[in-house]
Amino acid sequence: MKVTTLHPAFGLKIEDVNVKSLSHAERDEIIKAGNTAGIVHIPGQSLSEQEQLDFTSIFGRIRILRVNRARDSKRPPGIVEISNIDAEGKIVPPSNDMLRFSKGNMMWHSDYSYTADWAAQSILYALEAVRKGGETEWASTEAAYDALPQTEKDRLGMLTATHDRFHSRIKSGFTDFTEEDYKLTPPVPHPLVTTHPVTGRKSLLLGSHVSAIDGMTEAEAEALVAELTEFCEQPQFVYAHSWTPGDIIVWDNRSTLHRGRPANPTERRVMRRTAVFSPGVEGPEVQVAGA
Ligand SMILES: [Fe+2]
Predict the structure, then answer these.
(1) pLDDT (tens digit, 9 = 90+) per residue, 140-182?
(2) What is the per-residue pLDDT for 148?
(3) How far, in Å, from the CA of 109 to the mean position of ligand 1?
(4) Nearest-angstrom CA–CA distance, 111 and 260
C-alpha cells in the first residue's frame, strides 16, 4: 500500500490496495486516514453495491435512507445513486427530477449537517465518469479555520448556527416536501466552530443547510456565511477531483465542505454514495434522503 499527499492542505492518496481484501494493517491505516486526513482518494477499485456497503461499514454504522421520491428507489438500503441514467440505461433529460434534486449538491455543504448526529465519513465511488467537468471539490474547513486571525476565531467560537435541510433544498428549487418530511428532519443547532472528535482540531461548520445564526438577522447571517464560505473556497484550501471510473473518495464531513461541479448532461455519469454515523452515535435506523 502506497500513501501520498493529495493536496498541500489536506488529503491522502492510497494506492496499491484492494478495498475488498484488506489486511488488518491496511484496514487500520485507511480508517485512520478517513478520520484524520479530510479526504482519501483510493483509485482503481471495482465494487458491487454490497462490496461498497461492506467497505463503508469499516468506518461506522451505515446511514440507511428512506425511499426517496426523486431517485431510483430500487437501490439497496444505504446506497444513494448519483446518475443521469434511467432504468432502461438511457441518459435522462436535464429536466429530470433525479438531476434537479442533485442540483443542491452543487452548493457547498457537509452531508447531513441538518441532523443532530451529522455524518462522519461519506464515500463516493465512480462507475462511469464524464470526460470533462463533473468534478467534486472539497474545502478543508480545518485549514481555513487555522488561517483565520485569532480575534475572528474567538468571535466565531461564540456563535451557534441553525441547519435546516429544507432551507438548502428550497434554495435549489425543490419544494415538494411532505409534512412527514418536515417532522423527520426538524432544524438543528450546531456550533459554527466545531472540534473534531478524533483529532481535536477545530473547523468551521458552514454550508447550504445553514438557515440562521443565533443573535443575527437573516441578512447578517447570510452575509457572514457567504464571507466565510468565500474564505474557505480559496485555492489553498480546495482540492478538485476529476473522476476516473474505479475511483473511491472517502471524506470526513467534520473537517470538509464539498460540492459537485456541473457535468455535461449528454455524457453518462454513474456514481454511488454511502455514508456512516459518527462512532458511538445512536442515530435513527432509517432517514430521509438528501445530501
Ligand atoms: Fe454531499
Answers:
(1) 999 999 999 999 999 999 999 999 988 877 776 767 677 777 7
(2) 98
(3) 6
(4) 12
Distance 210 CA to ligand 1 centre (A): 14
Q: What is the DSSP letter of 245?
A: T
How far, in Å, from the CA of 39 to the mean position of ligand 1?
Answer: 13
Regions in the chain scoring below 50 on pLDDT: 67-70, 288-289, 291
Residue 73 CB neighbour total at 10 angstroms: 11
Cell readout for 113 is 449537517
Q: How many A from CA of 149 to the centre of ligand 1?
A: 29
Ligand 1 mean position, distance from CA 151 (Å): 31
pLDDT of the residue at 69:
43
Name the pTM for this structure: 0.91
How far does residue 40's CA lie from ligand 1's centre (Å)?
Answer: 15
Q: Residue 131 belongs to a domain with what CATH number? A: 3.60.130.10
Residues in contact with 4: Cβ distance below 8 Å, sequence separation at least 6, in sequence order: 12, 13, 15
Instruction: Give how many domains the chain has, as a whole number.
Output: 1
Q: What spacing in Å lies between the alpha carbon of 288 and ligand 1's midpoint?
A: 14
Q: What is the pLDDT of residue 103?
A: 74
What distance in angstroms lies between residue 185's CA and the mean position of ligand 1's atoms? 16
Ligand 1 centroid to residue 275 C-alpha, Å: 10
* DSSP conformational letter for 263: B
Residue 117: predicted pLDDT:
81
Q: Which residues of 250-285 are buried (b: 16+ CB within 10 A; e: fewer)?
A: bbbbbbbbbbbeebebeebbebbbbbbbbeebebee
CB-based neighbours (< 5 A) of ligand 1, an ion:
111, 291
What is the span of the domain harbouring residue 126? 2-287
